[in-house]
Amino acid sequence: MYPRHPRHRRAPALALLVGVLCALLLVGCGSGKDAPAPEATASQEAAPPSRSAGQPTPAWAKGFATVPEAALPAEARQTLRLIDAGGPFPYEKDGAYFGNYERILPRQKRGYYREYTVRTPRERDRGARRIVAGRGGEFFYTDDHYETFKAVLR
């Protein structure tokens, strides 16, 4: 019988090491520490909350992904300027009551929220993007027609 080459003696040890590392990765991935709470909504799972240049997250935005106003699409920033100015708005439904039927936004009395269209380039209709404004000064942005919302930090 021929003596084994030194490289062949290391192969089982290397395979064992790779197996141990894979097992550790699988255990770490399944720890459940990063899993969202069962009651979390799609808007809350979309992205972890972020902060705008050290600005603390306002109480009304807690639990929502946030986006600084400057990071919104240009059309959304234009819509915010129109809201601040009180109009005129390009779409007939702008300023209509938002019913919050999806119950993603914090519950408020009927008429608390109003919705505004964010123009989508190359769309023939209103598209899916909206700004929803609350009477308390809160603003939410959605780009998927109310499936998810981000709190707008101004």
Poorly predicted parts: 31-52
Shape: globular
- Rounded to an integer in angstroms, the radius of gyration calculated over CA atoms is 25 Å
CATH class of the domain at 65-152: Alpha Beta
CATH fold node name of the domain at 65-152: Nuclear Transport Factor 2, Chain: A
Number of β-strand runs: 6
Mean pLDDT: 78
Q: What order do the helices and strands follow?
A: HHEHEEEEE
The CATH superfamily of the domain at 65-152 appears as: Microbial ribonucleases
Looking at the overall shape, the CATH architecture of the domain at 65-152 is Roll
Helix percentage range = 25-40%
Strand order of the largest sheet: 1-6-5-4-3-2
Question: By helix and strand content, what is the structural category?
Answer: alpha+beta
Quote the beta fraction: 15-25%
Task: Report the span from N to C terminus.
Answer: 78 Å
| Number of continuous helical runs | 3
Main β sheet profile: 6 strands, mixed
Region (Disordered): 35-60
Keywords: Hydrolase, Nuclease
GO molecular function: hydrolase activity; RNA binding; RNA endonuclease activity
Protein name: Ribonuclease T1
